[in-house]
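Example S7 (structure tokens).
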């Protein structure tokens, strides 16, 4: 129904549908105000007049006016009637960004094969966990994490990773990144491996700490170079990322003797193929090491479940920081993971994943026979060094992208630009099982063509 009030000094052209008169009137007025047809300061008809013209109840018009006053579209003053409020200018409309086109084959590092997520086992664990869960489970939880998960983690980490973990020393976090940020926020100067993941350096800086580089060689991080001016050091001792070296025994002793806090990033410690996994540094110095683990590589990064085993002196500061960050990590996932751990379905899944990734590692070595491949004793990635005389990383990556293949580069992992060794990082855990052989074939052809 279209109505025109010329006598009010403002034209109102409102189409109010027959059903849902109040909601329809509200929508019509909002549209007129947003589009600029009703300008700020324009006076609207009295409720009685508008009700007569539209053929609806006066109370319906009054309720619609009241709702739009509450929302800020209208203002109402005694004796002045109802007028259009001054609204902030509308946000500019930007064209929708085209979704990123995924590469045909993805061998970038950082992710496991998420198609291997144990959905059936996760659902069974969730049912077990929630079947007898009390109502308090769904209330606000403990910033340290649910007691069931902390107890299950203490048992698992001691049994599998050699970590000395009491449930009271464990804080459950929303992934590794949060654990790193909580710990970095308690320190002024943090040493980080060079090369290492640039994003993690950014996390530490945003937490307020200053980052200093710690060189890495074939024996792992140069912990013998740590100085007393450094408060904490972030290490990947089981499988250095991205060079793939395990921290040598002498370097382990050196970092313990150094005396500062060691943030041990055990991101893929379960995946070692040629011998037993290297035990955690935390097991020999629990009061000097904050051990950080995650389910991102064993299950999937979507879960956002991590944990940190702390020295006694850091428990309360980290818990307090966690409380003021997100209060606590969501509880349903914690209970489900606890059930998965205590039923040993988690162990069975990790064993199956380790067997699958070892087969992928072996296939990588077979397909690239003759190429220098490093860092393949553990983890989900391998390093392919490039010769000093070329081709460069940029040239190889450009050619790979042209062929539909995504790879990682070594160059972006250095703290500073300079004359560094160049190389490609191949994430053999990333693609699905069905696409992995074809991805390797394409990689082999690429390396042959650019050699």
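Recovered sequence:
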């Amino acid at each position: 129904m279209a109505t025109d009030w010329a006598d009010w000094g403002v034209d109102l052209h409102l189409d109010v549908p027959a059903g849902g008169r109040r909601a329809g009137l509200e929508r019509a007025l909002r549209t007129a105000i947003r589009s600029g047809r009703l300008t700020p300061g324009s006076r609207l008809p009295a409720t009685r007049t508008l009700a007569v013209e539209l053929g609806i109840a006066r109370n319906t018009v009054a309720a619609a006016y009241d709702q739009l006053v509450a929302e800020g579209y209208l203002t109402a003053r005694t004796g002045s009637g109802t007028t259009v409020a001054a609204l902030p200018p509308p946000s500019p409309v930007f064209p929708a960004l085209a979704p990123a086109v995924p590469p045909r084959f993805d061998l970038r590092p950082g992710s496991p094969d998420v198609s291997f997520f144990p959905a059936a086992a996760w659902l069974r664990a969730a049912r077990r966990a929630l079947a007898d869960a009390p109502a308090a489970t769904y209330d606000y939880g403990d910033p340290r994490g649910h007691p069931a998960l902390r107890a299950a983690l203490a048992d698992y980490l001691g049994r599998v990773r050699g970590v000395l973990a009491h449930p009271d020393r464990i804080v459950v976090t929303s992934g590794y990144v949060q654990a790193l940020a909580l710990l970095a926020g308690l320190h002024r100067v943090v040493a980080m491996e060079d090369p290492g993941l640039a994003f993690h350096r950014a996390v530490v800086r945003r937490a307020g700490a200053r980052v200093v580089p710690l060189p890495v060689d074939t024996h792992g991080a140069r912990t013998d170079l740590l100085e007393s001016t450094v408060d904490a050091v972030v290490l990947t001792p089981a499988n250095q990322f991205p060079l793939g070296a395990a921290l040598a025994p002498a370097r382990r002793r050196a970092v313990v003797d150094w005396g500062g806090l060691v943030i041990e990033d055990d991101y893929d410690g379960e995946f070692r193929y040629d011998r037993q996994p290297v035990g955690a540094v935390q097991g020999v110095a629990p009061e000097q090491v904050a051990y950080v683990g995650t389910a991102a590589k064993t299950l999937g990064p979507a879960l956002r479940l991590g944990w940190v085993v702390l020295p006694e002196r850091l428990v309360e500061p980290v818990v307090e920081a966690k409380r003021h960050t997100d209060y606590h990590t969501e509880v349903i996932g914690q209970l489900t993971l606890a059930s998965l751990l205590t039923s040993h379905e988690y162990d069975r899944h990790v064993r199956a994943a380790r067997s699958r990734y070892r087969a992928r590692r072996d296939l990588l070595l077979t397909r690239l026979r003759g190429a220098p491949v490093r860092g393949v004793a553990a983890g989900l990635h391998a390093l392919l060094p490039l010769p000093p005389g070329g081709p460069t990383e940029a040239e190889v990556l450009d050619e790979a992208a042209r062929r539909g293949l995504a790879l990682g580069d070594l160059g972006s992992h250095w703290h500073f630009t300079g004359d560094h060794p160049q190389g490609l990082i191949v994430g053999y855990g990333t693609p699905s099982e069905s696409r992995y052989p074809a991805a390797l074939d394409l990689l082999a052809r690429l390396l042959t063509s650019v050699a």
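Notes on this example. Confidence is low (pLDDT under 50) at residues 1-10.
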